[in-house]
Amino acid sequence: MLKYIGVKSIDELYSDIPEELLIDEGRWASLNIGFGRPLDEPEVHALVKELLSKNVTSKVPPFMGGGLWPHYVPAAVTEIVRRGEFLTAYTPYQAEISQGLLQALFEYQSMMADLLDMDVVNSSMYDWPSALGEAALMSVRIKGVKRVLVPETINPFHLRVLETYTRPQGIAVDKYKVDLSTGYADLEDLKAKAGQGASSVYLEYPYTFTGVVDVNARAIGEVAHDSKALYIVGVNPLALGLYKPPGELGADIAVGEGQPLGLGLYYGGSTLGILAVGWSSELVRQMPGRIIGLTTTKDGASRAFTMILQTREQHIRRSKATSNITTNAALNAIAAAVYLALLGPKGLKELAESIWYRSHYAALRLREAGFKAPALSGEFFEDLIVETPVSYEGLFRRLAAEGLYAGIPLAKYANWAKDSWGLLSFSELHTKEHIDILINSMKEVN
């Protein structure tokens, strides 16, 4: 291979790497990565066990949310997605031999469409921010105005990805104001900025970095439509067990994060980007990713599933594709479908209620302990901002040293947040005892 590409040696192949970064043979010993001989299986097992014993586990489930949350994953979800038919299937390029996988993805789309009150759902995106980036690009292609409006309290990680998608194409991302006493959008500021022209107006519902469920959600959509812009709503899907879905709020495009739907937390993932649209041929044709359709066999005797509108994809249209999304989160979408099927509408509502009660119990206990909670007075779900008399980052670090992960120091990531604000999250994993442990520990180190 070296000869074919015209390189004489491995060293020449890596000639662009600075000399000081290369490890010569004399420096291998200093790395201390060898044992002088191969290890046998019992020795490897003992070594790995020793390394694993250094892991530090929390006393209680982490109180960290802000876009990815700790939730219980039913055993049935894990067992089903581990089946070889799903686990080893890369992605259904040959639809005629992937009927089981295609049916599972069709079920995901159908249940998600019901949950969101939207007409067409793709399967699927990488995560919430990539779905938002794609939705913004869709709006610009449709409306032709290179400007999108987002709330100033947008999740900063979502914003960074959105800007990565839009900046190379010369699309401006501008912020409209949010009242930082309530957490609700400033409608007058939004009207003024939308009146200057925009392809889309975006709302997080609830806001993932405040937890606030904006009472102006429908009015924001009306402002967007009055200014000829599309309305994009980003959601935590579990909140829809209690609150109105994007379709009912007038959303043209819905995006969100499927991680709470049976995916757990593994160093920040795994994630599942949700993207859905209302029924419009223009919107559907501009969607990225795959859509699975239901039809019948040629003789009409059996149902059949197939990928439709593949012309959106780069493996067919190359540079003219609507997106460069290729490998999708198909296995995660199947996990979400299993999770939603297990819960059903009644179970989802009960789960959302249990999360609501836990977060509101926590707010009550925090107030009793002398903290301001929530710091924003608006209605909230799962996440809430607490205000402490000291720097929240300092408090967070002291609690983390004790194995208690007390949310997110907001000022570290959000320029609109006070240094004393922290974002706490409460899910069905947190018992009353867990919440009391958190608050008593916060009182001790405050």
Summary of the model, kept short:
This protein is an alpha/beta fold and 446 residues long. It has 16 helices and 12 strands.
What is the 3D form?
globular
Strand % is 5-15%
Count of all domains: 3
Mean pLDDT: 92
Order of helices and strands: HHHHHHHEHEHEHEHEEEHEEHHEHEEH
CATH class of the largest domain: Alpha Beta
Q: Give the helix/strand class.
A: alpha/beta
Q: Name the CATH superfamily assignment of the largest domain.
A: Type I PLP-dependent aspartate aminotransferase-like (Major domain)
For the CA atoms, what is the radius of gyration? 25 Å
Q: Please count the helical segments.
A: 16
How would you describe the oligomerization state of the chains in this entry?
single chain
Number of strands: 12
Helix content, binned percent: 25-40%
The spatial strand order of the largest sheet comes to 1-7-6-5-4-2-3
Largest sheet: 7 strands, mixed
Which fold name is given in CATH as the topology of the largest domain?
Answer: Aspartate Aminotransferase, domain 2
Provide the CATH architecture of the largest domain: 3-Layer(aba) Sandwich
Low-confidence stretches: none
Distance between the termini: 63 Å
Can you tell me about this structure?
With 446 residues, this protein is an alpha/beta fold. It folds into three domains: 2-49, no CATH class; 75-339, Type I PLP-dependent aspartate aminotransferase-like (Major domain) (Aspartate Aminotransferase, domain 2), CATH 3.40.640; 345-445, Alpha-Beta Complex (Aspartate Aminotransferase, domain 1). 38% of the residues lie in helices and 13% in strands. It is built from 16 helices and twelve strands. The protein has helices at residues 2-5, 10-13, 28-31, 41-52, 75-81, 84-87, 99-116, 128-143, 156-166, 187-194, 217-226, 281-286, 314-317, 330-368, 392-400, 432-445; strands at 120-121, 147-151, 172-176, 200-205, 230-235, 253-257, 273-277, 291-296, 303-308, 383-387, 408-409, 421-425. The longest helix is centred in the C-terminal third of the chain and has 39 residues, at 330-368. The relative contact order is 0.14. The mean pLDDT is 92.
